[in-house]
Write a structure and sequence with these properties.
The complex is a heterodimer of chains A (292) and B (67). Chain A contains 11 helices and 13 strands. Chain A is an alpha/beta fold. Chain A is globular, with a radius of gyration of 19 Å. The chains are: A alpha/beta (292), B mainly alpha (67).
Chain lengths: 292, 67
């Protein structure tokens, strides 16, 4: 099977979708605001925002318009738009070009939010996003663009709300997003040598979220660590910790651990950014803390 | 289009037309600015690297939570 980068896998999905369906069209750069209206009249736009950080320039169109058309028009309209973003840090791109943003957008009912962690998922999720009749925000971890995986040439879809178990184990449930997935997989592989085995769950879509997979794993292991690159307030780590504390409390053998950035903008300095983003050391410490 | 509407170029043009600031003075300002930039780059490259503890410096002017 051919190996492709995440960048090429997404590109391939766009080309194949446009070949298959005339109503699909690609629009960029940073003109995502008009995708809402195009979608309302029956087109299937895929709009681009170069950096997730720029979402502010079309926040009203996304949050107050696209997210709410169906609801506020009593089910009489649909908005099958996809907006793609480059998201996340690791490039010394500094505060205004490194934000995740997917955790913020997850909080808005009416939007679907996708965060692929590898090229195979990226293509399948993009094709699902284009077919989906709801507005989908597709956050591509830019530091993973060059990472390769086996990606089929043919078209395929990956359903939303279906997590992927990147690793399976019995001791600890670890949930991770975007660029934290491969980073956490490496930590888990190292811990396996010490006799610690973990489930690594990549939800792939934060909205809808595969709550069942997460809760089932927590019920089996009793220990939960969540890893995301965004800062801690109102983020995915808190969201999933809350879910588990509410619905799987009796299964918990240890406090839930959250690994995320500190409450500060992403630094420019490479030394500071390395201290800022969750790293192998912090992820390992969190997993071991649940076993202490 | 950009070339014709560059405010720096247009300002220079207007100053030389009105004679308010001479070309020589404008050149001197440019030279001074370039020197300042060069020195800043040199100073920045020679400066000590920030430490991990500084990662939350200057997020706020003041931020105290009640424990």
């Amino acid at each position: 099977m051919p190996e492709k980068t995440m960048r090429d896998a997404i590109n391939e999905a766009l080309h194949q979708a446009m070949e298959q369906d005339e109503s699909v069209f690609v629009i960029g750069e940073d003109v995502a605001g008009c995708s809402g209206s195009a979608a309302l009249v029956g087109m299937r736009p895929v709009a681009e925002i170069m950096f997730a950080d720029f979402i502010g320039v079309c926040m009203d169109q996304i949050v107050n318009q696209m997210a709410k058309f169906r609801y506020m028009f009593g089910g009489k309209s649909r908005c099958p738009a996809v907006i793609r973003f480059s998201a996340g840090g690791g490039f010394s791109a500094a505060g205004q070009h490194s934000q995740a943003m997917y955790q913020v957008m997850t909080s808005f009912p009416g939007l679907k939010v996708v965060v692929p962690s590898n090229a195979y998922d990226a293509k399948g999720l993009m094709l699902s996003a284009i077919q989906d009749d709801d507005p989908v925000l597709f956050f591509e971890p830019k530091i993973l663009y060059q990472e390769t995986a086996e990606v089929p040439d043919e078209m395929y879809t990956i359903p939303f709300g279906q997590a992927n178990f990147v690793r399976e184990g019995d001791d600890v449930t670890v949930v991770a997003f975007g660029q934290m997935v491969p980073k956490t997989a490496a930590v888990i592989d190292a811990l396996a040598e010490e006799g610690i085995s973990c489930d690594l769950i990549d939800p792939r879509t934060t909205s809808p979220l595969d709550e069942g997979a997460i809760l089932e794993s927590v019920e089996a292991t009793g220990r939960l660590v969540i890893v995301d690159e965004a800062p801690p307030r109102c983020g995915l780590t808190a969201d999933i910790a809350g879910l588990a504390a509410d619905r799987a409390f009796k299964s918990l053998k240890a406090p839930i651990k959250q690994v995320c950035a500190p409450h500060s903008p992403t630094p420019f300095s490479p030394e500071l950014e390395a201290a800022y983003l969750p790293n192998a050391e912090k992820i390992t410490a969190a997993i071991k803390a649940t076993l202490a | 289009m950009r070339e014709n509407h560059c405010p720096l170029k247009n300002f220079r043009q207007r100053m030389s037309e009105t004679g308010e600031i001479s070309e020589a003075e404008l050149d001197a300002i440019d030279a001074e600015v370039l020197a300042e930039i060069d020195q800043s780059v040199t100073d920045a490259k020679a400066a000590a690297r920030p430490t991990a503890e500084q990662v939350t410096e200057d997020v706020y002017i003041q931020y105290t939570a009640t424990a």
